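Hi support team,

I'm filing this because I wasn't sure whether my run with thiamine diphosphate finished correctly. The job status page said complete, but I'd like someone to confirm that the output block is well-formed before I use it downstream. Pasting the exact inputs I used:
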Amino acid sequence: MILDDIRQYLRPGLAQTTFCAGCGHGLILGALLRAIDAEKLDMSKTVFVSGIGCAAWIPSPHIDADTLHTLHGRAVAYATGVKLANPELTVIVVSGDGDLSSIGGNHLIHAARRGVDLTVLCANNQIYGMTGGQTACTTPLGAFTSTAPKGNVHRPFDLVELVRAAGSAYAARWPVSRPIEMTRAIRHALQRPGFSMVECISPCPTHYGRMNKQGSIREIHAAMDQNCITPDQAAELTRAERLQRIVVGEWIDE
Ligand SMILES: Cc1ncc(C[n+]2csc(CCOP(=O)(O)OP(=O)(O)O)c2C)c(N)n1
Ligand code: SF4
Ligand SMILES: [Mg+2]
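And here is everything the job wrote out:
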């Protein structure tokens, strides 16, 4: 697909994005727009909802459609309201790991439990990027953050397992270094009625990368790619070992 095809979805007049150089969030925007184009979504009947954080800027201000940039942690609650008010709308939530699974964790699991017809993209950079790189509920064990200078002592949520256990019909996980798979997963999530979540693993070189000495963005992408394993490979590992890897794929629960 040529760039012009997805440029049509961008809000006119934007000179540049707000993301730092090397941030993965712009790649998630690209994957989302490619999925939207492939699915031929009617932008006049699509609403994008985000909370607060760098990831919340993925849809707003970039996408030329109705966007709700809401309170921190409340994106799923607003999205649920939009869907209930007008069930004909396609409602897409795009927000960060902190926004969706820390402060907003209850909204996420209960929307999954109720099967609210939403497509949720969680941009997981394993940290609170916007506010200075604090530990999140997704930060790996032992990782360095601005609030864990000696290494994080708490194990992270597995967000795919979390929403599946709550009742999500569809969940997927891909890093931004696998844009084709990520785009395909977003398409599948859009096609499926009920609650769907795609966890998009996204580097934050400014905070997480710097604090964990991850090197250049090229090295970060290479390491992310090497860290990916399939669910079959994950089955051979202990939970602690699994949480240090990126288990990629899609999980469909009818
Ligand atoms: C009620 C409330 N608490 C805290 C904040 C401060 N705050 C803004 S964004 C953010 C974390 C964002 O992290 P995440 O959703 O992971 O997005 P990222 O910036 O990492 O992409 C926090 C704690 C806030 N805006 N409102
Ligand atoms: S602080 Fe991190 S998450 Fe935020 S824009 Fe910069 S690289 Fe991206
Ligand atoms: Mg984050």
